[in-house]
Amino acid sequence: MKRGTKINLLLLLAVAALAVLPLALGLGDHKEEPFTGADGEAETAITELDPDYEPWFSPLYEPPSGEIESGLFALQAAVGAGVLAYYFGLRRGRRQGAARAQEQQGAARTPGHDGSEGT
Predict the structure, then answer these.
(1) Cα angle, residue 113 at apex, residues 110 and 119 outer, rounded to 5°
(2) What integer pLDDT is reported at residue 89 of this predicted model?
(3) Three-class SS string for 75-101?
(4) Do the beta carbons of residue 40 and residue 33 sit within 8 Å?
């Protein structure tokens, strides 16, 4: 097995373990909503420390349910991943195109490359 394949398999196993272990070990069983985001955790901690706290700003849009909020977050993540993939693909394509152009220029400069004998 190639080294790159081994690394990919190990990374895949690590991601699967990160996804499954919290569920299998019951790490969120004592909470009402076990896997809330950092915003919810911060809000809970702030209200415990200072019950009279008033936020400085209010959200521009408050989704009607948690499912819609999760969907919007997933959409945001997908758009971000698409932008990054486009950027890295464009960089790689430009690099490969420059390498091919350089190879063609080098091949055109060598005598006899086009089939002529260079007389």
Answers:
(1) 80
(2) 95
(3) HHHHHHHHHHHHHHHHHHHHHHHHHHH
(4) yes
CA atoms within 13 A on the CB side of 17: 6
Closest CA to 31 of 46, 48, 44: 44
Q: Could you tell me the CA-to-CA distances from 109 to 100, 102, 112, 115, 118 in Å, in that order?
A: 14, 11, 9, 13, 12
Q: Would you state the pLDDT for residue 70?
A: 85
Q: In whole angstroms, give the CA distance from residue 94 to residue 110.
A: 25
pLDDT digits (tens, 9 = 90+) for 24-71: 887 767 766 666 677 777 888 898 999 898 888 888 888 888 889 889
Task: Specify the amino acid at residue 84.
Answer: L
Q: Which residue has the higher pLDDT, 41 or 75?
A: 75
Q: From CA 104, how far away is CA 97, in angstroms rounded?
A: 11
